[in-house]
Amino acid sequence: MLPYGRQSIDDDDVRAVAEALRGDWLTTGPAVPAFEEELARWTGGVPCVSVSSGTAALHVAYAAARVGPGDDVVTTPMTFVATAATAALLGARVVFADVEPDTANLDAGAARAAVTPRTRVITAVDYAGHPADYDGLRTVAGDAGALLLGDAAHSIGSLHRGRPVGSLADLTTFSFFPTKTVTTAEGGAVAAADPALLTRAARFRNHGLVRDPAEQRHPDEGGWHQEVHAFGLNYRLPDVLCALGRSQLRRLGGFRARRAALVARYTTMLSEVPGLALPPCRPYADPSWHLYPVRVLDGRRREVYDRMRQAGIGVQVNYIPAYWHPVFADLGYRRGMCPEAEAYYAGQLSLPLYPGLSDADQDRVVETLAKILR
């Protein structure tokens, strides 16, 4: 089965992991800040805190924003459920706003209509790697007195009007799952320019521990002393995985270029195939494409999905609208809330896309898809 996405591991990655395994530190060692510093090169210098997954990154970011009971978080339903679930777990009410019909990114006008006096965070998702409308969303968040969070699980390395993802929102989260552009096997990160947000994020990912005597309430207890002022969790990313991530980041430019080339080939080859809508690219955007999401028209998505899979091509659907999950349905969310998102989902199909995808395999994907649709 040709997968829709997969990791790209080379000998340098293996050597980096082996070196970490042979070293003195498997976790909480020097590879962690080294990885975070390397990542900050891709966020325009905005400092980063590494964590154990993209989901952990969202949880940490919401905690750093002090999201809790009585707060609203406005976000898109066209995302993996974790974008909303982590806010709900902190006690917030999730308010879903509709998406742009072609990019599937959060629509700034819909976000504005969803804002309430309780809105603490507006969370955009860079769907498929295409940056959201950060200019419009920044205005909405500013008018609401809310923080802007960018879920950049798909978009590391992407640019918005020449500025890198990671520098566009108050908080930005990354995912390093194997299908993503850069992998640490499992892992994620939070970027924040505000020192207070960054400190709260760093503490939450490490049990809430305060080790600086200048900030402790009882600093004279002894050299071993550490305190917890606010609860946190163990979301640390170990040195072994940080070593892999640092090696991967050194190849991010190449990953971006290969993905862009594959996207351009798909767009050229599929432009005349009937029954498809192809992903757009806004003039302001330079995406790091994580997905190549086509939309199958005329209600044929299920048929095309099944026949592509039968042909050994692992297409995927990304994503079920978040509020369709029973956990949200049981909270009173109902289908029909975001019609543009539901219409997008009804036709969405992700074609294989990863740096190791050969031109020949891509040709096979296109030929099979075109044969089904013609």
UniProtKB/TrEMBL annotation:
The active site is at 180 (proton acceptor). Gene3D superfamilies: Aspartate Aminotransferase, domain 1, Type I PLP-dependent aspartate aminotransferase-like (Major domain). It is an enzyme of class 2 (transferase). Its EC number is 2.6.1.102. Coiled coil: none annotated. GO terms for biological process: polysaccharide biosynthetic process. This is Perosamine synthetase. The lineage of its organism: Bacteria, Bacillati, Actinomycetota, Actinomycetes, Streptosporangiales.
